[in-house]
Batch of 4 targets.
Target 1
Amino acid sequence: MVEIFIDPGHGGSDAGAVSNGIQEKNITLQIAKKVQDILQDEYSDVSMPII
């Protein structure tokens, strides 16, 4: 089994950049989840926790 760790970078109390009511942590989490979905659809026997 291959493990791929996906780290969106910000979260919790660390919002990252904030502009116009948008927090970087929310955007990076959405991207990380999409990457996780794509990789899980394309590959078998892979573990991909978002950390």
Target 2
Amino acid sequence: MRRTRQQSDELLDHIASGIAQRGYGFWALERRDTGECIGFTGLQPTNAVPSRETGCVEIGWRLVPECWGYGYITEAANACLAFGFDELGLEEIVSFAVANNRRSTAVMTRIGMVAEPSGDFDHPQVARQDLKRHLLYTLTAEQWRGRKQAPALP
């Protein structure tokens, strides 16, 4: 369901405030060739994951459907992981998606995240029952460093 203009403006104000306070958040995602805004990606603190009682930092994204399948999210998400681990010094980054969102879970796998089925949860901010169940994926700084140092395949 799309947001109204007022809801969108309120969300952008909230995101901008968080970026101003922390130095990171969800950033607009633009195509390099056209400058067109096609979605967002970034890092955001969250308390939505029950297995992370003290909160955690999630990597998230949204992309307009006509840009799906071109690798934009994979490229942007990898840059966000590098920022989170290399610049912010995070020890873990999580991601989660509706259980049947195969496109997002495929991105999570491509960027090196690992499914954590014991952490799957019903999202507390989602009212619709068919969208409530979320799958949890995680990546630690140690896994990130190991992935970055792995030799390239021929």
Target 3
Amino acid sequence: MPLYEIHHTCPLAVSQKDELATAITTIHATKFTTPKNFVNVTFHQTSPEDNNAYIGGKPRTGNHIRAHVRAGPSRTQDDWNELCKAVERSWTEIAGTPLPRLKGRPEPDTKLRSVIIMGDITAGLEAGVLLPSAGGDVGWLQNHWEGFKRRAEAGEEEMVDLVQDVEERDLLKGSMSEAERDRAEQKRLEEMLGWGYAA
């Protein structure tokens, strides 16, 4: 669903790419109810000599992360700001220390210049399924759950991972409204105590 594009001029080791992709996937998936299998991360390296970026009308090299996401009323400005800060922290922890430099070359700039979130995903098709609108992930999962399970049982690796992620994170549980969850919790508590209407 979301697409994170990492444009970097500093070299990144495969292990750093792996860690960044995992961190960004986890950040987005836990911030929202997005299954991890639908978080996409791509890397695009530009050499400082081939830089095509201009800031303030002047050529500038730098490292940038751009995220294309589904925007909607269920996601607030605070949500997006927190997401930006979490992504920035992950970059600093994982890529902020430069790799050993080559003899005679300057030390690469590992600072992250920007994290830009663009709410520009209007529609999409991924793994053969049309994507839901922002905030509609739980209902979408419910509508496609039996199909996802059948595809997992048939050995489709991506669907095996999806089913495991949804079950481990109990994402289908989010289908109840807050009031319904409160009533269910109250009922469960009353049953445990052995009193009330649920006893």
Target 4
Amino acid sequence: MNRDEKKELVSRLQAEFGESAVCIVTHYQGLTVAQMETLRRKVREVGARFQVTKNRLTRLALDGTEFEGLSDLFTGPTAIATSADPVAAAKACVEFAKTNDKLVILGGAMQGKVLDAEGVGNLAKLPSLDELRAQLAGLITTPAQRVASVTQAPAGQLARVLKAHADAESQGEAA
């Protein structure tokens, strides 16, 4: 990799860090190519990104970003997962690490706060942005449905009473 390619990589990583809400740092030593592809696919499915990075270049890219506190974690075979959704990358990595002990979560950062491996695990337990949006939409529509059913109920009851009264009158005339 020549000097220009390194500069381009550093600037690309800085841009990615600027767009991300979370960065998870992992060790991947011992994972096969197939396992890495499976992990990448799972991370992509939730809208996140997983990539192997060069430690020195990544530390350079971290300077001046909210993830600057992660610099010490970049030793050995490291890979990062980044995402605009603060929970998505953590959830995908933690779920994969549960089934494959070769992926070791070292830590992460979110909104300038450095998290240890346990903190990343706790972050993964939270609902994702999409899940929160669905819950919020459910909460918003539920009262509207109740209001609609309550306002329709008296009219329906009134219609049934009138029909019963009309039926009673028509039977009284027939008798």
